[in-house]
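Quick note —
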Amino acid sequence: MKIETMVQPTSHITRKHITIFVLVYACYLLSFFSRLLINPIIPTISVDLRLTKAQMGGFMSAFYLGYVLTNLPGGLLTDKLCYRKVILGTLLALGVSTLLFGTVTSFMIRVLAGIGSGATFSACLRAIFEWFPKNKGMATGILQTGTTGGLLMVNLAAPPFTEQHGWQYTFFIMGLIPLVFFALSFFYLPNPMQTDKPKASSVSSTFWRDVLSMFKNRNLVLLGLSGFFAMAATWGTASWANTYLNGQLNLSLVTAGSWMSPHAIASVIAKTLTGSLMDKFQRKNKKYYLSALLLVLVPALMWFSRNNSVSALYVLIPLLGITAFAYSPVMNTFIGELVPVEKTGAAVGFLNTIWQLGSLSAPIGMGMILDTFGNSYYYAFSVLAVCAFISGMIVLFISLPHTEK
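Predicted structure written out below.
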């Protein structure tokens, strides 16, 4: 085994940098690939297991339950164990849990997968910041496409594979992919540079003290609440859209997956553009920009909830992809506006925990609505539209500092 531990990062991109980035990106993308794998094939699973809509939503939410439990201490875990160990642990947990779900169909298997992924984002960011100090903006932007990259992959791969081989075999085969990258990362992902770091006890006490201070930051709490409702709208849509296309418009799972692919592609383009435009707004206008990006999701969801035309999907699906994700990079940049640099890690953990509670609540909440109102997707997606509206309104009460952090 050959692992280099003291290679210094430079502004010049070498083959080693490319290898590191590919492995880090693969980990981040596969964390979303594994969490979303169940979404486009849940109708088939529900028939075999005789699940109600609420139970279907429970299986889709289970990953987020585990994810939320370990998201807040994720930054602390990365500081203590180093990004390499966290990334290796994530890939191993994703691979094993995905393999097991195909043979031992359990709610807890999905929870364990989420627990194993809670520190993924902080570990990947730490690796990016360490190895790309002069290009971290570009590298971070590319990294964040892993969310929609995972969504695109599951929609293209899972439905046709399930149609041909069954959903159990789909989970088994897809579980091998993280294990392949675990092996590659074990041999080719280097340890971090050896630098003078504070003692673990000091890091821990400072981290939790910073987290507690976040509750006193009114603007940060408002951003957390806005993100909660925004994530509910975004991931509630991503979780149930395939089932809606399959059940409401009578499309096959393969066709529904194909329709959702432009949704993912459009979201990548939207996030790139809205993030770039953010810097062009004066500080006092940035919250209005974010609010507008959130509010445009409302009519898109209302249209989607009432649509019964397949031809309308040519416009509606890309529109949903744009409006459901366009706000994301802008909302993330608000963190840097509201806290000093030295507290960014704690702020990210604090906010992401609140935000992911929205991701956790939406799938199971929509399932309960569908069971209660006779499979009415109109009511289910209307609730998501209300969430987007609330999110956009909350942003308007945020006061950005007048000076740069």
